[in-house]
């Protein structure tokens, strides 16, 4: 009976899938949380993610170190963030429009520079086998956790703490909630937002690096399936709370693993419907959590979608 | 941060001039406020009071003019510079960050806030600081959950916490109850007496000026028109400095309501959730007849705002019916046009205007899509909008730099006038008004009350919600009291007793 655990395989596969699939969502949504908490929306993170994936892969191929690849992705992502923040600092520029333009720009640029790297293979990011205590291969597979997932979890906790307990965290919230109040305090909203967007870009690019350097673990033009965009929805779903982002990303990852998991235990019909589970789930939660009589609780007051 | 050791700061603004484009909002104004004095700044709406103090605080860069702080010339290019010199301001609108708690607001506003905040220590410090303040404010709640009065106190506490020793208060009591106002100004007055603080207060209330201020300066149309010791001036003299020899609008005689007057507004068993979503408001059997003013009294936050929103169609009702002239009323544009229903909500800039659109466009909101015969127009004429706005601006004396200024650039009182102009023009059968005189100078108050009375005498049914009991007693035919989301008491004006009304407002019954 070694290895055959029957229907128990489904929750295990979902857990493993949640951990594996959620990592890019965690990073992009945490990045977007920082940006949105400062009062800007950066819809360009999808482009940043794809460019980050390409940059990480290319640098990892060239240097042989996946970590230098991640670092390169962060630099590139911060660059995209700075560009977004800088353009938005001009009067009468709409952050959403700029974001969409930068999304297409980032993807186009990534495809252009990424052509030569579709063939070569890069060293992967390491994973920690947390499931070694078990003799079941399914458990080992599910608990083979990438380092970046743990970093993401720690980062969510750190951000949640920092928004309450550090000067920088409070300043970001002040700027995001009331630009007037920020100016009265002598803060420059544009500067704070510039750096918040850069930080958001850097984090989103780590999400991309994870895609190309771990799971699925190769670079091609169809690498991202909209993670960068879905993560923006996750942020709203998580009410701009970093811990909420982490939970939402896990939930989303788990729902995404539902289809493959059912398939693996021998369900042959209709499992493909479950591939749509994450999207359906998001819609359901969004509708359930909304109310016509109440403003979006927790939304930063300066966001162009809530103002 | 030590209230005892740092002495008050004296400030002089010399020859301040401020132009917005071609419009001179401030013309060579000099105001001297010696250390430890309490100085009042008077003037009609749009006189330039807020502009003057914003120039002093570095929020605006004046076209010309100098600042002298403690006898020395000072360069104040930003509010930060002003803060470094010990100058602070409580703005007419709140500058607290709504989603942050009181504690967070205080600590982060400090110049030397630590990179990592030790909340244990900060809370202890705040506690001992608050012990020296007579205000009790729940500091651990988000500011958005505080009542207006609490926010105002927190604004003042914040300035004192930051060690500011010259404080500008821009209409600090407009959101406070008389008791709260008295208490707050008394404290501030005490601090000036002890030489710990200097105050420059903008106010429209003469009784506050007489009771608390040492000196007064008066602005009119951007010019300094008078100054002196409050002790040597009376209300009449101050009023004359403010408005010159302009006549004050007199209230029309109250025409008797015809015995057979039909009820225009009927509210039957209406239920709706309040702002928090936890409590509900229930209004039943409210009738307002043509040619009468029904006043609704109540301490703010007892559901008046929600009731108004239900009437205006801004808040969904869960049950019940609203009827206007015997037709079910759902607050659509078409219905309100057909039934001649008009609204003047509180905070008109937020609730009745598109702040970034022009004054002319805002004034034309009710009529822009109609042609001369009142039929839907297929082509909207910018000229018609401008002509219409021009005549109403003249009629209602709205002071604006131009027709195409965004309405948010108008002074608070003038936004109010612009909305009144829009809502009181044309045939009005039902007028629903909330706190119409909030933040207006005395001449404007008299004028607006006169216009409401005129509308009533002209046969309009008026529902007037107000936190100002004097206003209700002056205007209403009947007074209702709203408490805890319900109408709990009704009295005809002839039998109205302030004490009984007050007790019902406080929920003692
Ligand atoms: N940013 C601006 N741009 C253009 N005009 C302005 C601006 N700020 C103020 N004004 C104009 O300057 C004049 C003075 O405005 P201010 O706000 O100083 O009046 P105020 O005396 O404070 O009136 P209130 O009692 O109603 O508050 C007004 O006519 C106003 O329209
Ligand atoms: Mg003002």
TrEMBL record, chain B:
The keyword Flavoprotein does not apply. Belongs to the ABC transporter superfamily. It comes from Hansschlegelia quercus. Keywords: ATP-binding, Nucleotide-binding. Coiled coil: none annotated. One of its GO terms (molecular function) is ATP binding. SUPFAM superfamilies: P-loop containing nucleoside triphosphate hydrolases. Residues 11-246, 264-509 form the ABC transporter domain. SMART domains: AAA. This is ABC transporter ATP-binding protein. Pfam families: ABC_tran (PF00005). It comes from the Bacteria.
């Amino acid at each position: 009976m070694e290895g055959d655990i029957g229907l128990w395989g489904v929750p295990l596969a979902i857990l493993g899938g949640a951990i594996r699939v959620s990592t890019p969502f965690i990073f992009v949504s945490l990045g977007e949380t920082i940006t949105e908490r400062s009062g800007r929306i950066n819809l360009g993170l999808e482009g940043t993610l794809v460019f980050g994936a390409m940059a990480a892969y290319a640098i990892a191929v060239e240097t042989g170190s996946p970590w230098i690849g991640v670092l390169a992705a962060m630099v590139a992502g911060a660059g995209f963030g700075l560009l977004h923040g800088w353009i938005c600092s001009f009067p009468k520029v709409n952050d959403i429009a700029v974001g969409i333009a930068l999304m297409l720009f980032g993807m186009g640029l990534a495809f252009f520079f990424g052509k030569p790297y579709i063939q070569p293979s890069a060293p992967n990011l390491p994973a920690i086998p947390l499931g070694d205590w078990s003799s079941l291969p399914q458990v080992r597979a599910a608990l083979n956790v990438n380092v970046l997932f743990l970093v993401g979890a720690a980062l969510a906790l750190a951000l949640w703490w920092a928004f309450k307990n550090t000067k920088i965290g409070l300043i970001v919230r002040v700027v995001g909630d009331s630009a007037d109040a920020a100016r009265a305090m002598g803060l420059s909203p544009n500067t704070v937002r510039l750096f918040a967007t850069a930080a958001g870009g850097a984090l989103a690019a780590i999400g991309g690096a994870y895609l190309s350097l771990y799971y699925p673990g190769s670079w091609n033009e169809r690498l991202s399936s909209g993670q960068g965009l879905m993560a923006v929805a996750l942020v709203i779903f998580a009410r701009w709370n970093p811990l909420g982002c982490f939970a939402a990303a896990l939930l989303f990852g788990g729902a995404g693993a539902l289809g493959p998991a059912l398939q693996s235990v021998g369900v042959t019909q209709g499992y493909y419907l479950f591939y749509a589970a994450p999207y359906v789930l998001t819609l359901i939660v969004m509708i359930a959590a909304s109310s016509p009589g109440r403003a979006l609780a927790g939304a930063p007051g300066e966001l162009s979608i809530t103002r | 941060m030590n209230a005892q050791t740092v002495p008050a700061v004296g400030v002089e603004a010399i020859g301040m001039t401020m132009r917005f484009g071609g419009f001179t909002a401030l013309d060579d104004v000099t105001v001297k406020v010696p250390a430890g004095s309490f100085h009042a700044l008077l003037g009609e709406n749009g006189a330039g009071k807020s502009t003057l103090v914003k120039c002093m605080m570095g929020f605006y860069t004046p076209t010309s003019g100098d600042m002298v702080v403690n006898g020395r010339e000072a360069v104040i290019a930003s509010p930060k510079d002003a803060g470094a010199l010990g100058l602070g301001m409580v703005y007419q609108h709140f500058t607290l960050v709504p989603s942050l708690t009181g504690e967070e607001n205080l600590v982060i506003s400090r110049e030397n806030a630590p990179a990592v905040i030790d909340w244990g220590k900060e809370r202890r410090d705040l506690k001992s600081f608050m012990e020296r303040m007579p205000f009790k404010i729940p500091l651990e709640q988000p500011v958005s959950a505080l009542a207006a009065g609490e926010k105002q106190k927190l604004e003042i506490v914040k300035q004192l916490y930051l060690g500011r020793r010259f404080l500008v208060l821009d209409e600090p009591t407009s959101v406070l109850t008389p008791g709260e106002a008295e208490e707050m100004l008394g404290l501030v007055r005490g601090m000036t007496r002890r030489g710990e603080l200097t105050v420059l207060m903008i106010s429209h209330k003469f009784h506050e000026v007489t009771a608390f201020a040492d000196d007064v300066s008066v602005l009119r149309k951007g010019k300094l028109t008078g100054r002196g010791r409050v002790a040597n001036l009376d209300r009449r003299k101050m009023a004359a400095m403010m408005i010159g020899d302009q006549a004050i609008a007199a209230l029309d005689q109250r025409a008797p309501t015809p015995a057979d007057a039909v009820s225009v507004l009927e509210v039957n068993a209406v239920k709706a959730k309040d702002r928090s979503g936890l409590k509900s408001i229930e209004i039943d059997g409210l009738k307002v007849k043509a040619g009468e003013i029904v006043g609704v009294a109540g301490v703010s936050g007892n559901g008046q705002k929600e009731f108004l929103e239900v009437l205006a169609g801004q808040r969904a009702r869960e049950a019940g019916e609203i009827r206007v002239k015997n037709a079910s009323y759902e607050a659509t544009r078409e219905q309100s046009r057909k039934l001649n229903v008009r609204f003047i909500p509180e905070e008109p800039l937020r609730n009745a205007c598109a702040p970034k659109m022009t004054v002319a466009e805002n004034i034309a909101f009710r009529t822009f899509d109609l042609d001369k015969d009142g039929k839907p127009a297929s082509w909207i004429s910018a000229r018609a909008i401008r002509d219409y706005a021009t005549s109403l601006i003249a009629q209602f004396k709205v002071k604006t730099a131009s027709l195409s200024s965004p309405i948010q650039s108008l002074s608070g009182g003038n936004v109010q006038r612009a909305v009144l102009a829009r809502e009181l023009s044309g045939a009005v059968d039902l007028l629903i008004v909330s706190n119409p005189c909030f933040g207006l100078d005395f001449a404007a108050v008299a004028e607006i009350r006169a216009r409401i009375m005129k509308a009533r005498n002209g046969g309009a049914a008026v529902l007037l919600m107000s936190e100002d009991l004097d206003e209700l007693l002056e205007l209403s035919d009947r007074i209702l009291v709203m408490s805890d989301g319900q109408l709990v008491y009704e009295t005809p004006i002839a039998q109205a007793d302030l004490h009984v009304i007050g007790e019902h407002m406080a929920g003692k019954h």
